[in-house]
């Protein structure tokens, strides 16, 4: 489990696909998150929970399953891709964001980026199976970053929602370099999915009870 408060902006060093294309092994540079990482630990990589299988010289290695490659932005990672990194929480961790599982529910697309004096307004579109979980003033994880939704507008394809990206978030995370057209990993608030399930309103997304992990 994570909080969505990014600890470090790292980068992909290598992504080696298996010969049959069904999975991959990724090496990610992140000196801070690897400083105390051990075999079997979980690290959120732009919102995707991956399991450490080795560390060396400020990098860690993890295996990425075919489902993750297909349903998240991990499928487009390449050497040099910047990623948001966060270690899993401990019993004494401050919950500065919200509960983030690292189970990506789907991929959204940045549709607009408008600079203002003290923040950037970013708008993201999501498909219909995720739209019902996005609410104004609610929480959403975008590439593993805990963010507050400003507003939501329904569109034919699903929904488009707005975010305010403050200077600290621009500097410390990949939201500082994301541009219109870029794909981003979306994890909706798990409490919304549980509420939907309990009320018997679950559809295609609710029936699967969440997204994918590495």
Can you walk through the features of this model?
The chain is mainly beta and 214 residues long. The chain has helices spanning 66-71, 128-131, 167-172, 190-198, 204-208, and strands at residues 8-17, 23-29, 42-45, 48-56, 59-65, 82-87, 106-115, 120-127, 139-142, 145-155, 158-165, 183-188. A hairpin with a 2-residue loop joins strand 3 and strand 4 (48-56). The protein has two domains: 8-87, Beta Barrel (Elongation Factor Tu (Ef-tu), domain 3); 106-207, Elongation Factor Tu (Ef-tu), domain 3 (Beta Barrel), CATH 2.40.30.20. It starts with 7 loop residues before the first strand and ends in a 6-residue tail after the last helix. Mean pLDDT is 92; it is low at 205-209. A six-stranded antiparallel β-barrel has the order 1-2-5-4-3-6. It is built from five helices and twelve strands. The longest helix is centred in the last third of the chain and has 9 residues, at 190-198.
Broad shape? globular
What share of the residues does DSSP label as strand, in percent? 35-45%
The low-confidence runs, each spanning 5 or more residues with pLDDT under 50, are: 205-209
What's the CATH class label of the largest domain? Mainly Beta
Order of strands in the sheet with the most strands?
1-2-5-4-3-6
> For the terminal residues, how far apart are their CA atoms?
13 Å
């Amino acid at each position: 489990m994570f909080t969505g408060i990014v600890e470090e902006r790292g980068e992909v060093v290598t992504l080696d696909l298996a010969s049959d294309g069904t999975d991959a092994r990724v090496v990610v540079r992140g000196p801070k998150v690897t400083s105390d990482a051990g075999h079997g630990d979980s690290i959120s990589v732009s919102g995707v929970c991956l399991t450490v299988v080795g560390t060396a010289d400020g990098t860690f290695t993890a295996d990425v399953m075919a489902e993750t490659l297909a349903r998240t932005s991990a499928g487009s990672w390449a050497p040099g891709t910047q990623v948001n990194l966060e270690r899993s929480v401990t019993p004494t961790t401050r919950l500065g964001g919200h509960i983030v599982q690292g189970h990506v529910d789907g991929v959204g697309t940045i549709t607009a980026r408008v600079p203002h004096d003290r923040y950037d307004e970013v708008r993201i579109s999501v498909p219909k199976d995720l739209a019902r979980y996005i609410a104004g003033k609610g929480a959403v994880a975008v590439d593993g970053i805990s963010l507050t939704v400003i507003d939501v507008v329904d569109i034919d394809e699903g929904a488009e929602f707005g975010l305010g990206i403050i200077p600290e978030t621009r500097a410390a995370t990949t939201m500082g370099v994301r541009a219109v057209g870029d794909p981003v990993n979306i994890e909706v608030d798990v409490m919304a999915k549980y509420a939907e399930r309990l009320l018997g309103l679950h559809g295609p997304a609710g029936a699967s009870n969440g997204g994918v992990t590495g």
